[in-house]
Amino acid sequence: MDLKSYRPSINAYDELFLAGARSRPGLAEVGKFLKKSSLRDLNRRRSDAELAIRSMGITFTVYSDGSNIDREWPFDIIPRTILKKEWDQVELGLKQRLQALNLFITDVYNDQKIIKDKIIPREILASSKDYREFCEGVTPIFGVWAHICGTDLIRDGDGTIYVLEDNLRVPSGVSYMLENRNISKRVLPELFENYEVLPMDNYPSQLLETLSAISPRPSDLPEIVVLTPGIYNSAYFEHSFLAQRMGAELVEGSDLVVGDDDHVYMKTVAGLSRVDVIYRRIDDLFLDPEVFNKDSVLGVPGLMRAWKKGHVALANAPGAGVADDKVVYTYVPDMIRYYLGEDPILPNVPSYMCSDKVQRQHVLENLENLVVKPANESGGYGMYIGPRESKRRTAEMKRLIKSNPRNYIAQPIINLSTVPTLCDNSIEPRHVDLRPFVLQGDRSFVTAGGLTRVALVKGSLVVNSSQGGGSKDTWIIEPIKKGKRR
Amino acid sequence: MLSRVAERMYWFGRYVERIENTARLISVNTNLVLDLPHVKYIWGSLLSITGYEKQFFERFSVEDERNIIKFLLDDDSCSIMMSVRMARENARTTREIMPNEAWEKINRLYLYLQKNIQKGVKRDGRHQLLKDITAQCQELNGYLAGCMSADEAWAFMKIGSDLERADMTTRILDVGCLNLLNTEHPEIREQETILWMNVLQSLTAYQMYRQHVDDTVNGEDVAAFLLLDEKFPRSVAHCLYDVNEAFRSLPNHEMPLKNITQTQRNISHADIPKLLGGPGLHKFIDDLQSDMASIHGDIAATWFGYDN
């Protein structure tokens, strides 16, 4: 392929190429491979990948017109590469962050020292819809609530990696990350010869180790189950994938029952059998109709009782979501300093608290270039995206901020980094994000890389698979030194 | 093992077996029509084997070759496509215990049929389609036999496929008998041997029959072979023997084991010549089928958590 016409956007950081399609240091092999491959060859590999995805049945479910459609997983064959040296820092940063978040959750459900010490204002807890009074006074084993965390990372124009979001409830995507690697091994085997690509397929064993560690019966072989809402959930593929790789039972709420002794049992062909650890993939509010949503048929009546008594471990623990609230997010760097006495290794996307006079002034003067988020909303509701808004809406936003400054935070617009992507007849830069997965039990693990999502539409920053996004395999690589080549 | 998963494995076994049986049935009868071009009811008897006449006539008015083939290939009642869909759905919901490649194989069969099932409507494409289906089923079964541990999941799958197989054998035998015993068509009487051979071939039993039964192809020997032979894998006795064995490997098996042993005893005591003399065999098979239905009920009550 002739890559002379490959033009990274001026504002975005291209992770593979510098100007003139020169590869970044240490990453030359992928560039070389693309240059020497013909379009026909790449298209052949692409159709091999599509065939593999179809026959392996790698799907995700989208909801459309009231029905569920299983779509094949969209995948771009050109891998995204990150140097191990850089990744080592990211890994440390992710572990540090999850440690602090777990300390925070234990603190807010118990002594609330961080509030008493005025690091975080009390109102923030009061306004969090994921704070569960039911969890007050509880400290799960090792003080860990969020055992599995999916952290969304983005890279700014100068190459700096920022944390955009922590997902502490039921983060998904790890199975696609693992399947992406399987597909690249099938369609690009020769490219693996030129690098040491860090393997990632030990994730299921690390997950199993993490879940085993939190069993209330540590001396026995614990019975671990994956609790799924069922086949119609969009992540069902992943639930069954993880259960299979761990050799755990995949259960639905109706397979479980809480006995009079407040232990959890599953209905097996041999009768009732005790369950020790539940990796639950359903939301807090559906877990137990006795405590939360009364109408939930997905959950198990009495489950919270069993959990509170320590008879069963839940991963992630209910109430963990209090720490992935949008406003709480802005305090994570403070938490790291407060609980760990360390400087944060990974920066947050800088956020301006409108309640602060100086910061508010900056926000009001630069509104056209900022994203403004209401503090109490989540899921993108009420979000203001400066460059896209009308003058009228900008004026209205200014008024809103002035009248209720505490209710808003603002962030600069981050232009996501780009990676070469195989488009119709050419290779072009497309924007990406990255979701690595972090595990914490008695030990911590970070996946070598993560799930890269790519916006397949030119110029788009929307990476969601339901909205035209695709995915890429992510390679954490160590260049093989001369003479060491296999 | 979870009851829900056990049930899905059981149905997976049943549907995979049904795919293959239906494909063979169509294939053998397509050949038979070439031998007996004047016999009109062949396709109709295929329909009665399935027991889905009602559903057929809701969709079609004439029971001719084209309609019956369409019905058996792609319909929501008992068609190959339906069985593949159900087998795939059961595999999809048990992927955590099914070997990976087994899922890939059934998924591939599903994708293949989605594209090609219509090719079987006409005679010229039918042979290749059915051959492909049977081959892919065999590949799947071979893979499962070679790669799955003989654990509980395996036992439930095996029970499902053996019961389905025994059920199909009795249905094919029943229709063969009914046609011969009640027929008023003189040309059928003349072709009795061809028809019994057809019954055997529908069950891939012709070659084994020839090797193990030292006689001509006649009703009495065929019925005895298909009901009582302990070595032929599609005979009712053999299938029930396997189910019995599988039961023994499962917990809490007392009740189902007792009932299946009774059914096996009834079969071994059957007096075939006497039954063939009148409507006796049809009645006998009817009873056998309801016994098998109650075995299914026992399984559901004991292991799937249903009320009996």
Task: Spell out the blueprint of helices and strands.
The complex is a heterodimer of chains A (486) and B (308).
Chain A: H1 28-36, H2 39-56, E1 59-64, E2 67-72, E3 75-83, H3 84-109, H4 113-116, H5 122-126, E4 148-155, E5 161-167, H6 174-187, E6 195-197, H7 203-213, E7 224-227, H8 236-246, E8 249-251, E9 256-258, E10 264-268, E11 271-274, E12 277-280, H9 303-308, E13 313-315, H10 326-330, H11 332-340, E14 352-353, H12 357-365, E15 370-374, E16 384-385, H13 391-403, E17 408-412, E18 418-422, E19 427-435, E20 437-440, E21 444-446, E22 451-455, E23 469-479
Parallel strand pairs in A: 3-23, 7-8, 7-12, 12-13
Antiparallel strand pairs in A: 1-2, 4-5, 4-20, 6-23, 9-10, 10-11, 14-17, 15-16, 15-17, 18-19, 19-22, 20-21, 22-23
Helix pairs in contact in A: 2-6, 3-11
Chain B: H1 3-35, H2 42-50, H3 53-59, H4 65-73, H5 80-92, H6 100-116, H7 123-147, H8 152-182, H9 186-190, H10 192-202, H11 206-212, H12 219-228, H13 236-248, H14 254-268, H15 272-276, H16 280-303
Helix pairs in contact in B: 1-5, 1-7, 1-8, 1-10, 2-4, 2-8, 5-6, 6-7, 8-10, 8-12, 8-13, 8-16, 13-14, 14-16
Task: Note down, in words, how this protein is organized.
The complex is a heterodimer of chains A (486) and B (308). Among the domains of chain A are: 217-311, Rossmann fold; 352-412, Dna Ligase, domain 1 (2-Layer Sandwich), CATH 3.30.1490.270. Helices cover 29% and strands 24% of the residues of chain A. Chain A contains 13 helices and 23 strands. In chain A, strands 3, 6, 18, 19, 22 and 23 form a six-stranded mixed sheet that branches. In chain A, strands 5-4-20-21 form a four-stranded antiparallel sheet. Chain A has a four-stranded parallel sheet with strand order 8-7-12-13, covered by helices on one side. Chain B has 308 residues and is mostly helical. Chain B has 16 helices and no strands. The chains are: A alpha+beta (486), B mainly alpha (308). The A-B interface holds A 54-57, 226, 231, 240-241, 243-244, 248-252, 254-255, 266-271 and B 1-6, 92-93, 95-97, 100, 103-104, 107-108, 111, 152, 156, 250-252, 303, 305.
